[in-house]
Amino acid sequence: MMNHSMKNQCKVKPGTIIEGKWHKKHYIILKELGFGANGIVYLAKWHNQQVALKMSDNGMSITSEVNVLKSFAKVQGSALGPSLLDVDDWERKSGQISFYVMEYIQGPEFMTFIEQKGISWMPVLTLQLLTDLERLHRNGWVFGDLKPENLIVTGPPARIRCIDVGGTTIKGRAIKEYTEFYDRGYWGLGSRKADSGYDLFAVAMIMINTVYPKRFNKTTGGIMQLRDHINQNKQLKKFEEVILGALQGHYHSAEEMRNGLLQIISKDRQDTRKVTRQTRSSHSAHRPVKQKKQKKSGRIETFLIFTIVILLYIFYIYGQLI
Q1: Domain that holds residue 125
Q2: Are 127 and 240 part of one and the same domain?
Q3: What is the pLDDT of residues 228-264, one digit of tens each?
Q4: Is the pTM of this model over 0.85?
Q5: What is the 3-state secondary structure (H, E, C) of the chain?
Q6: Residue among 145, 164, 183, 199 flagged as catalytic
Q7: 145 is catalytic
Q8: 297 in a domain, yes or no?
Q9: Is residue 56 domain-shared with residue 174, that is, in the same domain?
């Protein structure tokens, strides 16, 4: 968490005008969006455009995050992080504050979107996330503090985006920021060294989080507790192989995990289609039987009517003769 002295120093009221020392751009603060270990993020206005402005008294932290955003921009096709718009300093009486300005990504948070649209969106968004993580990992970065609060769903069409790159770490180094529930070290299932598996563990925990929105506390810890929670829910049980694979570090890349998830989704769709076809065939098979019964009933009815008519005719002739 961010220390109180830093938060107080970076705390500004709505309506405050932030003027860049070097680029002379003016930003009007609208409201606070959130704060973390390394600064506060505000919604700001610049030339009738809404932007996100992050400030911190830790210049090194700002420089690190700016470098991450610049690296993201070089990752072709990646939509994980916001676009970087400006980097500057703001001079105030209490001292100089470093800040950077980025694209303001609008939309519901990951968990809110799932609650609104349904759990069927979970694998779809997970596939998107794994695609972006694969590009990020190939460029030598690990996202680190991956959690639903840092994920926004834009659209339509629905697209998952990230709003905080503060925990992004170069591969091989120690993870800079983490949240316990999504941290493999907390669950005793690996180190806090930045590698692809660290992010994939977090992805698996996000999948679990979608059906346990309030999360749950660690008791015994380890894979047994997490497996028990997976087995208690039919939605998670469907993806058990992939989730456990990520939790236990069996996947070497995000692409490998994505392919495993795709196979399960594909199989599930095939099974659904098979059941649908069988149901239709069953209905079709009953139609001829019904039609045969109707035809047989019609023949009996016709025969009875014909017999009655003949009998009536015979009685009529017999009466005439008498």
Answers
A1: 110-271
A2: yes
A3: 999 999 999 999 999 999 999 999 999 999 999 999 9
A4: no
A5: CCCHHHHHHHCCCCCCEEECCCCCCEEEEEEEEEEECCEEEEEEEECCEEEEEEEECCHHHHHHHHHHHHHHHHCCCCCCCCCEEEEEEEEECCEEEEEEEEECCCCCEHHHHHHHHCCCHHHHHHHHHHHHHHHHHHCCEECCCCCHHHEEEECCCCEEEECCCCCCEECCCECCCCCHHHCCCCCCCCCCECCHHHHHHHHHHHHHHHHCCCCCCCCCCHHHHHHHHHHCCHHHHHCHHHHHHHHCCCCCCHHHHHHHHHHHHHHHHHHHHHHHHHHHHHHHHHHHHHHHHHHHHHHHHHHHHHHHHHHHHHHHHHHHHC
A6: 145
A7: yes
A8: no
A9: no
